[in-house]
Specification:
Blueprint lengths: L1 H21 L11 H6 L11 H6 L4 H4 L16 H13 L3 H30 L4 H14 L4 H5 L4 H23 L2 H17 L6 H11 L11 H21 L17 E4 L2 E4 L2 H20 L21 H21 L4 H14 L21 H18 L1 H25 L3 H11 L4 H13 L7 H21 L4 H13 L3 H14 L4 H21 L3 H14 L4 H14 L2 H14 L4 H13 L3 H15 L3
Antiparallel strand pairs: 1-2
Helix pairs in contact: 1-6, 1-7, 6-7, 6-9, 7-16, 7-17, 9-10, 9-11, 10-12, 11-12, 11-15, 13-14, 14-15, 15-16, 16-17, 18-19, 19-20, 19-21, 20-21, 21-22, 21-23, 22-23, 23-24, 23-25, 24-25, 25-26, 25-27, 26-27, 27-28
């Protein structure tokens, strides 16, 4: 009892520490993927009435509103738990980033508190003398680790946190079930596992981690290992898989997307995208696994985007993949061998390797080469190993061990708080990270978009011009990396349009339409550019023939657009072709019959064409519309 009492303050120290580390995100906006699952998701914004859609559709459906886009990432996504939480919050507080960030911080702090309880229970069952120190040290390292900033600072990361909470609770109840044989703990473990899968399917790895954990905690002669506990989890997974299959169908045999941003194992061969060779695929995966270890040891630089080609195409002729392969295989085999002795380091190594395997791209593609959020649950294994190493050092020199632990926690805390500031909004996030990942097409595109979004908020003309030049360069960089990136062509066109560089803008929109003839945004913006060019050459340059050329093209794209019809009428009037002016003003009135100004324009055209009787009728109609009484 006294041991439990002493452990409570440590747990709350962890909870408070987690909250303080991320308190600076409370004033942040929604960023990055928050739009997909919160503010632009039609189910989330319906509140509780949207739960049905969240439970019966792919997680992306509420954002794209199109079943054909459910396989943008191979296999689809069925993760309703966190969107259901967001829908509940939306029902209560609406579109309030503060509350969403507050809940995310509380979830993270709860996750850290539960992790401390799990490790304390685990190491007590393993019968390690320093179990209190190891549990507390591992939890402190996990709580402070800077690689977790993406998960906590980005509200969408609640799926990682909720799935980890479910997994941790599952392990806690499994250990209690094993030691007490009380069925209620088995039920709780199964419920927690099911909820963790609903949050994110990555915790399928518990099917391997759980037996290993139970083996470690069965060291006591009074506690024996039994397969009934992991078999119960397997039954729960089959239930989840059946539900997932009912909603998404089977992903077996589904071809990986042919879009580079959803399938990073593609490369350009001339103008065509072709799959990586086996050597390139394996080399790139091993390179990423090596980088994961580097980030756990030294979390810098941190970026939210590892899309092509931030991670270059690496084949097995390079050295790093071989170092990674030898290290992972050797350490993994050693851990498997030593696990039979219930070795803690072996357990920590296997925990990490098993947890990271699901997002490693080895078994199946996950849509990106790597991501810092993929380290959230696996990092528990790393923290356990590091804490155990510190406990060995503590046996020789307690002061040095404590100082080293404090140093690691302080340095990671400083990095976490510093990194959090970057997640303030999309503009700051994209402009910061693009400097660290200049070869990411997606990030270059995002940086361009965030600059263009600022255009209307700026007052200084020179500042506006500079921002657009920068945006155009970012979009051009994205196109250089990924020539078939239609959105980058669109954004490049928008930048040129704002600078009144109409020829370049139209070229960019046409490039986007060549890639996707049905690209609605490019069609719309091309028409806007043609109309703007017509106005520019007519009003500012006095070049009526060029103006008419652009306006005719705009009219061919949309014969009913009122502004195009008005400008054509004005242009023909300036040219002296008043009959054509009358024609277009008449069409304009057909579209907007209740606008008196348009009737006045038609009256002016009749006047210049010498049709005075028609002029008087039209002007009378304008007067009637202006003064209906």
């Amino acid at each position: 009892m006294s041991e439990r009492i002493r452990s409570v303050p440590k747990g709350w120290i962890v909870f408070i520490m987690a909250f303080v580390l991320y308190a600076n995100t409370l004033s942040h906006d929604f960023t990055l993927d928050d739009a997909i699952v919160i503010k632009d998701n039609m189910y989330t914004t319906q509140g509780l009435s949207g739960w049905k859609g969240l439970l019966t559709k792919d997680t992306f459906h509420g954002f794209f509103k199109d079943d054909s886009k459910s396989q943008l990432v191979a296999g689809g996504r069925y993760r309703p738990l966190s969107p259901m939480l967001f829908a509940l919050l939306y029902q209560v507080v609406g579109n309030s980033p503060f509350i969403f960030h507050l809940v995310n911080i509380i979830l993270y702090a709860t996750c850290c508190l539960l992790l401390f309880q799990l490790l304390n229970l685990f190491f007590k069952r393993v019968s390690l003398k320093e179990h209190n120190f190891i549990a507390f040290a591992a939890t402190l390292l996990f709580t402070a680790h800077a690689v977790h900033t993406e998960v906590v600072a980005n509200v969408k990361g609640a799926d990682e946190i909720l799935s980890s909470i479910g997994a941790i609770l599952c392990l806690i109840y499994l250990i209690k079930w094993q030691s007490t044989q009380r069925v209620k703990f088995g039920i709780f473990a199964c419920m927690a596992f099911f909820l963790s899968l609903l949050a994110k399917e990555n915790t399928i790895t518990l099917l391997a981690i759980a037996p290993m954990t139970l083996w470690m905690t069965s060291k006591n002669e009074k506690i024996t290992f039994s397969w009934k506990h992991p078999v119960a989890l397997l039954a729960v997974f089959m239930l989840y898989f059946g539900l997932r299959y009912a909603v998404l169908g089977s992903s077996i045999g589904v071809e990986a997307p042919k879009e580079l941003l959803n399938n990073p194992f593609l490369k350009y061969d001339g103008n065509a995208l072709v799959p990586f060779s086996f050597s390139e695929r394996l080399g790139t995966i091993l390179f990423c696994l090596f980088n994961y270890i580097k980030l756990l040891v030294f979390p810098h630089p941190l970026i939210h985007d590892y899309y092509p080609r931030h991670i270059p195409v690496i084949n097995m002729e390079s050295l790093i993949p071989w170092i990674s392969l030898v290290t992972h295989v050797a350490v993994g085999l050693w851990a498997l061998w030593k696990l039979r002795e219930r070795n803690v380091v072996a357990y920590a190594v296997l925990f990490y390797l098993i947890a990271i395997s699901i997002t490693s791209n080895i078994a199946f593609p996950v849509g990106t080469t790597m991501s810092e959020r993929f380290l959230f649950f696996p990092s528990i294994g790393f923290c356990i190993g590091a804490a155990f190493g510190l406990s060995l050092l503590k046996r020789k020199n307690k002061n040095i061990a404590v100082i080293l632990l404090a140093l690691l926690v302080i340095l990671n805390s400083i990095k976490s708080i510093s990194r959090n500031t970057v997640w303030k909004n999309n503009y700051l996030l994209f402009q910061t990270d693009v400097k660290a990942a200049p070869n990411s097409a997606k990030l270059q595109n995002a940086a361009a978009g965030s600059l263009i979004a600022q255009y209307e908020t700026l007052q200084n003309v020179d500042q506006k011009k500079a921002k657009m030049e920068e945006a155009i360069q970012h979009a051009a960089n994205a196109i250089r990396i990924h020539p078939r990136y239609k959105n980058a062509h669109l954004l490049k066109g928008n930048g040129h349009l704002y600078k009144e560089e109409f020829k370049e803008a139209l070229t960019s929109y046409e490039n986007a339409l060549r890639l996707d003839p049905a690209y609605k945004e490019a069609k719309n913006n091309k028409q806007i550019a043609l109309r703007a060019a017509g106005r520019y050459f007519g009003e500012k340059k006095g070049d009526i023939d060029t103006a008419l050329n652009y306006l005719k093209q705009a009219h061919a794209m949309d014969k009913k657009n009122p502004e195009t019809l008005r400008l054509l009428g004005v242009a023909y009037g300036l040219k002296g072709t008043h009959s054509k002016s009358i024609e277009y003003f008449s069409k304009l009135i057909d579209e907007r019959p209740n606008n008196p100004e348009y009737w006045k324009l038609l009256g002016t055209a009749f006047h210049h064409n010498g049709q005075l009787e028609e002029r008087d009728k039209v002007l009378a109609k304008a007067e009637e519309l202006e003064n209906p009484n």
